[in-house]
């Protein structure tokens, strides 16, 4: 272990969650279900990014869309505020803030945000406000229930308490622009649309509010659909202005604020018999010809002294048409803009007919959806691990509900590597990136199984060639590039993981032919001499080929051989099982003989500088990648246990940097100045190639979590925690978004390796083929509580030390069938 990098009290802190002030300008908390698109909340409590239109839209903002509050004590003066804290610098805009940002309206003095996924909470403060206001927002998230975790909408629950001695009347209004047909922005940040938009008030099926629709354009357009802003409040407590006054300049905003701030209620329509600006006759400026269709919904309650009431709003959307293509390049964007695309349906469009139906479901099922989502949140955040560890695992759940991931109408779960502002990065369920991710496989195994089927049944060719990017779900020609050795062999390991997690061998039976093809392909292409090591060029996740022998790909080969042996035996192919085990044994022995230097595994290549982008004698953070995957798949050790422990220690010893400025490289920079992090490779014994592999100096959180999980599994807990704390310290809400660990894009898939660290520290092992699970907490073992989840159930595990020195264990099932879980030995 290096010298103590963090004080003990910081490293081994309790499970309290971080709070973010309204000034934390990088915070962006995503609301929305799996594969539905998202609406975000910033640390001020403000609605920020709208990515609900079937493509990445990191810069999408919704003009004139906000919540506001009006409060009047019985004998006092009314106070009205936008329900968010004051705007943060910088303010250096060429025209100040645009009119449609409503920056001139009064806001709360401050806000504080906290999150226990899937819930985000805000506390607003303002000395002039006669009531106390907080917000709890969430989209249902229930592990093992993908449909109820994939609803296109969110709850925003404002809780208002009267701390005074007299009655206070309170109204909260939500205002939202109609974005149906959205096609971008003009130079004044007004939204541009296809067709016409229509807002109207509606009351049926248990919810009341405004429905936002459109007409006059194709129902195949990717932003064809509708939206809704609703509430379950009684009709007598509701007033609405379905469409703001369509005037010039700021007329609509002025009218709304004067109307709402006067008495907290809204007039349905406003009529003004006045002469407007004649400039409109000679100019087509959008602010002179106001066409935005904003609708506002207000709920009013009276609060007695000491009373608290909840104002519940439900925001839903329905944009069913997803482009039947991967939108990654400028030419793809040009095709979208020109309308040159076909569409498939989002999976959520098979669950709901429109946004109103989704709102009604959320309204009528709210008690259950809240209870089950809260059961998960409470159980997970009761875990006796440091708060930053829980944040790392929970906050990266966001990835599966971000624009990175989506679900098409047949139920297939698809994903980018990450997303940029308006394009995706790395299409097609990239196998060598998804190798690292664990969250989806554990929490929603039915979704992860669709990925294995795509890889091992749909994409793989008869000769064993498997593209590492999937195009067949969109009926497109296959990706033509050298197969990825780490990704393809990793698919075999992950198939075994899916079998162990679910206990259902249907996926094995379906994909077994693909496993056989893959193992033959490995023998014919990468391991031509049949010695259990891959010597031929191997394309890997560094977007290059490794030459010679590398423990990175070799360890994945060992894990794939172990997994294939188990599956072969199950399928009645005992001879193949024996062959795979013998290959793995021979390969392990030879790797230790030629690659192990006493501290870590080196790349064995005749002349490292004969090829660009190798690592040679370097200490590679990914050198045990296959072992990491084997642990995730419950395969145990597939390499020398002693060497794994020593190599993990060396990865930390040599590759963890305490000050980024000392990590000199010409790559992209993900850590800066005095920040800490784990680099992919260093050369402690010299031998650095002239041109090392691309990305050698970058810091990827997915690799950091991989190393941390390996350290935890091998008993090196302090080192594991140090890595995780460094990651989360960097994502503090000011420098980076804690809900988006970026690599090649926002919401990067590899970051879902964070769940592996959680399982490693829990000491959690399971095999649902025999309904068995065991726990061996690596922290606070004398008094431990922890959340667990397998493919059949989830709940809480408790362990306590008894007076006689023994341990008692209790497993509580919170969700899942009875009798599905037995305690292991």
TrEMBL record:
Domain Glycosyl-hydrolase family 116 catalytic region: residue ranges: 462-756
InterPro entries: 6-hairpin_glycosidase_sf, 6hp_glycosidase-like_sf, GH116_catalytic, GH116_N, Non-lysos_glucosylceramidase
Molecular function (Gene Ontology), one example: beta-glucosidase activity
Name this polypeptide is given: Predicted bile acid beta-glucosidase
One of the protein's GO biological processes: carbohydrate metabolic process
Domain Glycosyl-hydrolase family 116 N-terminal: 31-367
Source organism per UniProt: Faecalicatena contorta
């Amino acid at each position: 272990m290096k010298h103590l990098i963090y004080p003990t009290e910081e490293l081994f802190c309790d499970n309290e969650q971080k709070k973010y002030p309204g000034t934390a300008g990088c915070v962006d908390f995503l609301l929305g279900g799996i594969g539905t698109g998202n609406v975000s909340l910033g640390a001020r409590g403000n609605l920020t990014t709208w990515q609900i239109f079937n493509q990445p839209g990191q810069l999408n903002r919704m003009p004139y869309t906000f919540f506001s509050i009006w409060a009047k004590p019985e004998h006092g003066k009314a106070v009205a505020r936008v329900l968010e804290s004051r705007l943060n610098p910088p303010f250096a805009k060429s025209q100040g803030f645009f009119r449609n940002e409503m920056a001139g309206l009064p806001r709360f003095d401050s806000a504080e945000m906290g999150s226990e996924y899937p819930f985000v909470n805000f506390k607003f403060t303002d000395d002039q406000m006669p009531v106390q206001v907080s917000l709890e927002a969430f989209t249902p998230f229930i592990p093992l229930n993908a449909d109820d975790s994939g609803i296109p909408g969110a709850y925003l629950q404002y809780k208002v308490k009267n701390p005074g001695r007299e009655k206070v009347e309170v109204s909260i209004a939500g205002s939202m622009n109609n974005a149906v047909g959205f096609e971008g922005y003009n130079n004044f940040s007004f939204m541009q649309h296809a067709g016409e938009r229509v807002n109207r008030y509606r009351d049926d099926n248990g919810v009341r509010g405004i429905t936002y629709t459109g007409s006059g354009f194709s129902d195949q357009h990717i932003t064809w659909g509708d939206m809704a802003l609703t509430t379950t409040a009684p009709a007598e407590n509701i007033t609405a202005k379905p469409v703001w006054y369509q005037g010039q300049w700021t007329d609509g905003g002025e009218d709304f604020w004067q109307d709402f701030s006067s008495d907290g209620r809204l007039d349905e329509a406003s009529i003004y018999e006045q002469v407007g600006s004649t400039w409109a006759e000679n100019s087509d400026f959008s602010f002179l010809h106001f066409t935005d269709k904003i609708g506002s919904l207000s709920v009013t309650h009276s609060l007695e002294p000491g009373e608290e009431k909840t104002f519940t709003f439900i925001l839903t959307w329905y944009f069913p048409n997803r482009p039947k293509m991967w939108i990654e390049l400028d030419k793809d964007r040009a095709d979208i803009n020109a309308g040159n695309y076909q569409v498939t349906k989002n999976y959520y469009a098979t669950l709901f007919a429109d946004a109103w139906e989704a709102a009604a479901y959320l309204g009528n099922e709210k008690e259950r959806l809240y209870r089950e989502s809260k059961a998960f949140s409470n159980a997970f955040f009761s875990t006796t691990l440091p708060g930053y560890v829980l944040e790392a695992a929970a906050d990266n759940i966001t990835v599966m509900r971000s624009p990175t991931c989506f679900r098409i109408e047949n139920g297939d779960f698809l994903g980018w590597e990450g997303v940029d502002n308006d394009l995706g990065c790395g299409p097609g369920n990239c196998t060598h990136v998804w190798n690292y991710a664990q969250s989806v496989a554990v929490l929603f195994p039915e979704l992860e199984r669709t990925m294995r089927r795509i890889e091992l049944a749909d994409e793989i060719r008869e000769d064993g060639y498997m593209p590492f990017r999937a195009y067949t779900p969109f009926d497109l020609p296959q990706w033509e590039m050298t197969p990825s050795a780490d990704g393809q062999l990793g698919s075999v390991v992950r198939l075994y993981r899916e079998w162990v997690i679910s206990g259902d061998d249907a996926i094995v039976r379906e994909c077994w032919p693909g496993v056989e093809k893959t193992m033959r392909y490995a023998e014919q292409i990468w391991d031509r001499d049949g010695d259990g090591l891959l010597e031929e060029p191997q394309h890997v996740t560094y977007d290059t080929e490794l030459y010679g022998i590398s423990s990175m790909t070799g360890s994945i080969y060992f894990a794939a051989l172990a997994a294939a042996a188990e599956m072969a035996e199950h399928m009645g192919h005992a001879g193949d099982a024996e062959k795979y085990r013998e290959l793995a044994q021979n390969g392990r022995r030879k790797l230790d003989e030629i690659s192990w230097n006493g501290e870590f595994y080196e790349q064995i290549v005749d002349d490292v500088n004969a090829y660009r982008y190798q690592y040679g004698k370097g200490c590679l953070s990914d050198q045990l990648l296959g072992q990491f995957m084997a642990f995730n798949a419950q395969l145990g050790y597939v390499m020398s246990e002693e060497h794994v422990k020593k190599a993990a220690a060396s990865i930390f010893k040599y590759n963890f940097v305490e000050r980024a400025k000392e990590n000199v490289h010409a790559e992209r920079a993900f850590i800066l100045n005095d920040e800490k992090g784990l680099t992919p490779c260093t050369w402690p014994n010299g031998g650095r190639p002239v041109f090392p592999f691309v990305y050698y100096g970058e810091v990827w959180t997915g690799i950091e979590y991989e190393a941390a999980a390996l350290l935890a599994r091998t008993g090196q807990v302090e080192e594991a925690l140090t890595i995780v704390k460094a990651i989360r310290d960097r994502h503090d809400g000011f420098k980076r978004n804690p809900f988006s660990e970026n690599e090649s894009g926002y919401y990067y898939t590899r970051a879902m390796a964070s769940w592996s660290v959680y399982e490693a520290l829990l000491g959690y092992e399971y095999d649902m083929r025999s309904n068995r699970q065991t726990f061996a907490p690596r922290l606070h073992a004398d008094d431990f509580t922890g959340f667990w989840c397998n493919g059949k159930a989830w709940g809480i595990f408790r362990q306590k030390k008894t007076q006689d020195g023994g341990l008692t264990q209790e497993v509580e099932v919170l969700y899942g069938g009875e009798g599905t879980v037995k305690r292991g030995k």
